[in-house]
Amino acid sequence: MDTAANLALNRVGSFDWDLGTGRLLLDGPALDLFDLLPEEYDQDPGTLARRVPVEDTARLDQVVTDAVGEGRATYGMYFRIRRREGRLMWAHTQGHVLWDDDGHAYRILGVVRDATQELSHAAERAALEEVRRQQTAVVEETAVALARAVTVQDVIGVLKETRGIGRADPVSVVMGLVENNRVHVVAEGQAGSWVPGLEYTGVDQEYPMSEVVRTGELCLVRSRGEFAARYPLLWPHLEPLDVGSAVYLPLIAQGRPLGAIGLLYSVGQPFSPEDRNLLVSFSSSIAQSLQRAILYDQEHDIAEGLQTAMLPRIPPVPGAEVAVRYSAARLGRDVGGDWYDVIPLPGGRVGAVIGDVEGHDTHAAAIMGQLRIALRAYAAEGHAPATVVARASYFLDELDTERFATCTYVDADPVGGGLRIVRAGHLDPLLRQADGNCRQLPVAGGLPLGLSARFGRNDYPVSAVELGPQETLLLYTDGLVEQPGTDLDEGVRMLIDAVRKGPFDVEELADRMLRTMKDRTGEDDMALLLMSRTGAEPGPAARARTLHQYITPADPESLATARDMIREAVRSWEAEERAEDVVLVADELVTNSLVHTEGGAVVTALMFPGPERRLRIEVQDRSSGLPRRREPGEAGTSGRGLLLVDLLADVWGVESRGSGKAVWCEFVCGRAE
Q1: What are the pLDDT digits (tens) for 417-453?
Q2: How many CA atoms lie within 13 A of 512 on its CB side?
């Protein structure tokens, strides 16, 4: 009997490893030990590694590396081989390293043999127990990580880092969630494994995840051939990938299927009963964490959607670019009290508001909604900035709540650049200059809304600031900079640094501010309002031009002076085609004010720039009584002048101004040249 026959009889195989090409040749007995058919082996050492437990593969690699690195001629070690049915058997390998004349290892010749009889059953059991211990440890570590997962994406992130579940490391982890009787794939698995058109599959369709959702039982796929036979719809998409087996686990919590997870392996696996028990325990931990994460995501989405719906749409602001952002708290589940608003005001001005109601719950959100509407109403009535904020404070105090609110209110002239700022317990705004530098803008302030009225200190100072061309005013709530346990000033400094390094486009800058600061904070909701003045310094034609005239009942000449002022304004502003209408209507409004109110009145003429030039006449007095237009046929003579105003003016109205009112009308004077 020759040597080869003797080796084969004793279950000893030989190998020839070319270190230059990497090809590893095995003879027939060696292939039998690794339980491989000749057509299954491609002379790649990686193919053999799939038959060897991960920890044994690492030891083999280290032994060979040490032998070559130390210049030794031989090495040997025991290791385990996994047979097709899943049984582990012990083997021993002996290698002889060949060196060239330059001292480089270029080839390894050796033998591999069955060593099961050489090792005691106790040693084999100890090795198997070590494998089980390691896999159990992986499940326990994964369970700990899942306990810290908050969102569905957090759960997916933990699973993508999972190693050692099953007989080998999965090459791909796929997750699907049940949505409306469909399975929605939310984790794609390995790169290149995304299957177009299969993001959603019906629960009743013949796909593995649909099957485990439908049956509630785990699904084991032991080989590529089994994959192709059982799932012909899916297999054409998986065939090009490195997938040799898979396990699909149902994710069930409180008797309800939440979805399924698929672990795909590169080698075929038999999946022993111990493997099944381990995988079931693994899926139970995932399902519990996933249920919490889904509930959190749903509540967070509802809260953010409700909050966003309560916030206003921002109108275009001539002369400025405005960007607003709101972000719900990352760890909170309730709507918050942060808000922003941009309010059109008379004369082409706008009111910009940022505010924060104390607390982070539905009560705070309800107060925020009422307070925002009240403040908007006070501003739209034309009150001075300090009056707007003071009235909002009284309003909050009258709601019979212990909550207070902070806010900053800005009465802005975007075209001219003038800002009048009132701060009620809020953070100072930031100012980004045209050169990109950013600094805090110190603004005199008063007590928060509600507290100032409660303690009788409801006077608010007004700070006048000039916003230059290409400069940006930044208003924000403390959620953007506040982090528990750290100095608030540190957060403000980080925000200023982010603004300095950020883009000049206000929309892009707002996104950058949120991204930069949310990584640091995120435990509170946050609101942000940016107003950037556009263009260069406007010339006379671009500004809203304004003339004022005070009229007293004791001075009959003042009415004639006001009439002359309006005629001159119409002429100089090139609106002669509406001259008679404007003068007649202005005369009627002034006369009406002097006859029906006590004290004097202020006549204001304004010409607004823009594609459609509008001339506005306002008559302001100290009476809160509103004029009433009489219709034909009604008794009495007063109020009929408003019929004339309604007939000649393009639009007219009445606005409250502090304790008085202003009656106004507008005339379109043709498009600007």
Answers
A1: 888 899 999 999 999 999 999 999 989 889 999 898 8
A2: 17
